[in-house]
Amino acid sequence: MKLRFAWIAWMAAGSAGVLAAAAGASGAQQGGARAAAAPDAGEERSLDAEPFPAEPSKQPTAAEWKTAPRVRLSRTGPAAAGCRGYRMREWLRIRCPELTVSAISLLGGKTEGVAFWIDPPLGGSELPRGGEVMFPIRRGDRRVIQILTFGPGYDGPFTLLPAIVVQEQWLDDEPAPTVTAS
Q: Out of 32-36, 74-78, 152-156, which region has the weakest mean confidence (pLDDT)?
């Protein structure tokens, strides 16, 4: 049982790395997710408190994410209550530090700039605790991202189960984007 558990955790961490690499996440992992975590101090701003740039910008560096202001998503459900959003220019980073994350997947929408990260297990734990997703928000974009966790199911106690669904859209005729996590 312990071997199966370790294998599942290893596969989940490996899958996140492969998905992030496939999405071009080179800047997302500079210095690791914990080093790049933005401080939680301060007031949450509205997602559209600052205007979005008209032209696409480069993916923020780890140093930039450290200073990124915390933003409030359009809607957050109870499952995502521990998650935090950060915005740098048109880039959004949603970090869920307390969630046991088994996998993250882009279910649909634009792949450009999308990056995932699952924190490696710490200490004596064999389960990855914490993860994040990063993507640009640009007019005309639509995305659905699913964050999975472990739980009881048909495959036993370590079945991959949906935990949070992140939806992002910015319709051409809307003044601001809508981002939900539930």
A: 32-36
Whole-number Cα distances in Å, 152 to 3, 103, 155: 17, 16, 8
**Residue 167 and residue 182: Cα distance in Å, rounded?**
9
pLDDT level of residue 53 (50, 70, 90 thresholds): very high
3-state SS class at 91? strand
Q: Nearest CA to 117 among 108, 125, 129, 126?
A: 129
Give the pLDDT score at 17. 40
Q: What are phi and psi of 32, to 5 degrees?
A: 80, 160
Prediction pTM value: 0.77
Strand-pair partners of 35: none
Residue 83 DSSP label:
-
Question: Is pLDDT above 60 for 23?
Answer: no
- Cβ neighbours for 147, distance < 8 A, ≥ 6 positions apart: 96, 99, 101, 103, 104, 131, 133, 162, 163, 164, 165, 166
Burial of 26 (0-12, 13-18, 19+ CB in 10 A): exposed
Q: Which two tokens stand for residue 125?
A: 């734990």
Beta bridge partners of 90: none
Q: Are 115 and 24 in contact (CB under 8 A)?
A: yes
